[in-house]
Amino acid sequence: MTTAAPLAAPGPARAGGTPALHVSGLTVSYGGLPAVDNVSLRVRQGQVVVLIGETSSGKSSLALAAARLLPAAATVSGLVEIAGTDLGKLGSKQARRQRASLVGYIAQDAMAALNPVLPVGRQLAELFTVHAGLSRTAAAERAVAALARVKIDGPARVTRAYPHQLSGGMRQRVMIAMAMALSPPLLIADEPTTALDVSTQAEILALVGELQAETGSGILWITHDMGVVAELADWVAVMYAGRVVEQGPVQDVFDHPLHPYTEGLLRTRRDLRTGRPGAPLYQIAGSPPGLTARRGGCAFAPRCARRTGVCDSTEPELRPAEVTANTEPRATGRLAACHHPLSPETSEEAVTA
Amino acid sequence: MARTLIRRLGFGVIAVLGVAVLSFLLEFVVPGDPARAIAPRAQSAAVLANIRIQLHLNQPVIIQFLDYFGDLFRGNLGTSYVQRQSVTSLIGPRLATTGWLALAGVIAEVILGGGLGILATLYPRVRAAVGAVNLTLLALPQFVVGLLLLLLFGFKLHMAPVTGGAGLPEIVLPALTLGLVGAPWYAQIVADQMADSLASAYVRTAVAKGLPDRYILWRHVLRNVLSPAITMIGMDLGAYLSGVVTVEVVFGWPGIGLLAVNSLQNLDRPVVMGTVIVGAVAVVFFNLVADVLRMYVDPRTREEQA
What we know:
Low-confidence stretches of chain A: 1-15, 347-353
CATH class of the domain at 103-255 and 278-304 in chain B: Mainly Alpha
Strand content of chain A: 15-25%
Largest sheet of chain B: none
Number of strands of chain B: 0
Mean pLDDT of chain B: 89
CATH superfamily of the domain at 103-255 and 278-304 in chain B: MetI-like
Oligomer: heterodimer
């Protein structure tokens, strides 16, 4: 980490091999307006990368682009490789055949993401009839096994149920079973626990953690919930207005946020957990800019307490940052896009005080 | 599910009775004397009075009402004033004739409308053309479509019979007329439903699963179009069975609609009542059948109404 030039796709230094997901210079725009702006990201095998950001930060567009599921109205440029394969470079037929064994996609609203008029078993089994060429009976057996794998009680009975007959948590388990059915090296989860109550959410997170330990696949998990980050993530990337503004190992980022936006997110979470009843909760003033309101300079500047003239004129680049915690320098692979990053001392103070 | 059906059936019976009572009373508001219609040239008051006595027309309305509905509950629809034949035996064969036409018409509607709807959804380039066809068909009244077809295929091209009748060659043009006039409705509902389905999260899931486009279309998209289409088919079958009057008149199709028109002109009250009641029963019956089928294709409708 000696060069200040933007790195292709930084990730943690410890794991090797082909990354599960390699995104480089990805831009997604709708009608010329960029929702995702030149984002680079890497998910190693066996690693959980959590992408956090507010509504309209572009995190769902990034997830859909990575899974190649964006509607035709979106313009995509940049590189997306899943386990070394760029689905966009394959013919449509090849891409279709390979995609489910490369990437599993878990949607936010499982009720909407499952076909309402087909039993869930059929929706699972069709993966095996189409991709593995299994007979209907053999595929049905595999569907039962897939449901058992996500710890559903009485999986045979559940295969005959329709989505509306299942609870929210069960539906999300079915989605997870579907995404993992062909054991892809990469899972992309777009806020899969947002619609669930807290205890179901915890169950799902625990389940994903277990399955991931078993299979060793990489996970890109999208959320706006810092609690989920703490629970699940190895690595966290913070998105704001279509760009990654900070990323690094989760513990480092939590201990010493560099970007004022990250620090703000962490403070809101701390207030929610430990705030006294009746005490005002911390909030980041203002709201993120919409697609049409993007401007020059740092997108977060209008909401930032550390803003100076340079923030309005020059867009900060995402560059490596060395954190000197307790005077001991550590190369952590951390990146931040800020002209005035918090020093460990100030961030320490800000978060724990 | 069974409770839903029984309740629906109960409502159906009430609806049919309501229709029967209303149309019975309506017949007494309509000006005209059935006795004069039966014997138009009879000058003598005695002859007319005699006819009235025979048909119980001299009785107070309430007595006639009770007589008629008493018979109705015993399954007796009465005797035609004009044809001296039981209404049941008059309507029976004509109901079958109209039934064939209704079925053929609905099949034509579904094929034409469904085809147009699918075409417009899958091929954006023909969407405007399909829209224009739909609008044109919507603007044309049934009898115009019928007469145009009759002119073209019957009189000009001699491909279809023009003399009327209820055989297989004769069914083509009237069924096509029903199909053309009904198609835009089906096209619209199919296109709307498909657009919703194609934009849905579950189709995105299917794409993510790497399923072939055609597979997604048949197994995931069109399955979700079935439910509203079935409702429309049920409504159409019921409505057509109560008489496709215009089409039957244009093509000389000896169905229940033609019978109803003739009886109305002759003030043949028992036959008019018979056709109205049979029509009401058909509407109730086919809507009920559609509901049951919908429960079969869309599991969500099974529980919500229980």
